[in-house]
Design a protein that fits this description.
The protein is of the alpha/beta class. Helix content is 23%, strand content 30%. The strands form three sheets. A nine-stranded mixed sheet has the order 2-1-3-4-11-10-9-6-7. It has a two-stranded antiparallel ribbon with strand order 5-8. The chain is globular, with a radius of gyration of 19 Å. It starts with a strand and ends with a strand. The structure holds zinc ion. Zinc ion (ZN) binds next to loops.
């Protein structure tokens, strides 16, 4: 089983009628509902939970953390963001959705401003696959067609991704690196741009397919805290060198 924790700020859904109408139980539950299946179990946590619903113990039992936040990034304590960063370094997978580009944990992991240009005018978007052979793009044709999305445009001030898997193009002309993969320490990170709160993006089957594929891809194959061990090496009678812990 892959153990997923979906974290959502969960403020827009309580304060804006138009968002509540689309996601009556919150974006986190909409995501949890389509992810749950035979090999994926899902828990949720929100900003208003005690300590944001995040602790070292909880992250130790999480294979993949999904993060959605927007209006209250600064209400997430720095200590919580550091716990997420450290868990990724130790191998936990992480998926940052849409406006989580400006979340504290994502910025801590990237080390750059992670800013972009944006417009909210209901443009349509085509999210183009750049690598049809990658596990995360399986089940997607040339592009995902989104009738409406918030427009995100370049320059997206992230470090060069290990791989760009999707490029978004908008009816207004902007282009954006909409799906980016990074490795930090032992952990895999996927950023995926679709998911503005006033559009029903997380009900679109292809968007769900990408997030489900990404959960399986970033789930850890190896997990250990990164240390800086002192080692001895010594010659082996058969001629090669063996290394062992000091
Ligand atoms: Zn948005």
């Amino acid at each position: 089983m892959i153990r997923v924790l979906v974290w959502n700020e969960f403020h827009h859904e309580k304060t804006k009628e138009e968002v509540k109408a689309i996601y009556p139980n919150g974006i986190h539950n909409a995501i949890a509902d389509f992810l749950r299946c035979d090999d994926i179990e899902v828990k949720t946590a929100t900003l208003d939970d005690e300590n944001c619903g995040i602790s070292k113990e909880i992250l130790d039992e999480t294979d993949v953390l999904i993060w959605w936040g927007h209006m209250a990034h600064n209400k997430v304590p720095d200590e919580v963001a550091s716990l997420v960063r450290d868990a990724v370094h130790s191998g936990m997978g992480a998926i940052f959705l849409h406006s989580a580009h400006h979340s504290k944990p994502f910025k801590k992991l990237m080390g750059t401003p992670c800013s972009l240009t944006w417009r909210e005018s209901g443009d349509s978007e085509l999210v183009w696959v750049t690598d049809p052979s990658h596990p995360i793009t399986q089940g997607i044709d040339y592009a995902i067609s989104l009738p409406h999305e918030e427009t995100y445009g370049e320059p997206f001030s992230i470090p060069n991704p290990d791989k760009v898997l999707f490029i978004g193009s908008y009816s207004g002309g902007e282009a954006f690196r909409s799906g980016c993969l990074f490795q930090r320490g032992n952990g895999q990170i996927f950023y995926f741009q679709p998911g503005h709160e006033t559009f029903p993006t997380y009900y679109i089957p292809e968007v769900q397919t990408v997030i489900r594929n990404a959960v399986r891809f970033v789930a850890p194959r190896y997990r250990a805290e990164i240390k800086c061990p002192h080692v001895h090496h010594f010659g082996h009678p058969e001629g090669y060198v063996r290394v062992k812990k000091a």
